[in-house]
Amino acid sequence: xxxxxxxxxxxxxxxxxxxxxxxxxxxxxxxxxDRAMQLGLQVKICxxxxxxxxxxxxxxxxxxxxxxxxxxxPLQPRDxxxxxxxREDDSVSVPKSAVDDLMTASLSAMPxxxxxxxxxxxxxxxxxxxxxxxxxxxxxxxxLERLQTGILAVRERLSSEASDELDQGQR
Length: 171
Prior knowledge:
- The protein is of the alpha+beta class.
- The protein has helices at residues 2-19, 24-38, 52-56, 98-109, 134-170; strands at residues 42-47, 63-70, 82-86, 114-120, 123-128.
- The protein has a 5-stranded antiparallel sheet.
């Protein structure tokens, strides 16, 4: 009987230690976030963007993660902007630009858990629920790099066209 009481006491002392151990889901998320940081992405927990309908209905804001790839060369400080493209968007459509086309193509190529793409002063980013594996994190990083390269090419082309028009106007 004494051994049974000693075993029960030892188990009661050891049991709380197991509560602090991360679950397999937490371990998977830690592995994915570590890999994202190794690939040069900034990882941040945030509220996921909502559709217009969800905002009007004041639906519960779901928590998720944003993986952001900062610009290779910083943009001018006067260029403060933020554009978010949702996978399931119900907002009123506006005229499309070359950047919108790039973002739409990139979003369709991303894993299904990606909810939205962001093109902002800080860089390009994805909002997602972190469902998947390290392979999907690598696919997201490659997709963000391609999107960033494409956006920089479009911005360069537009700025060169604007400077050409300015030069022609001065003649």
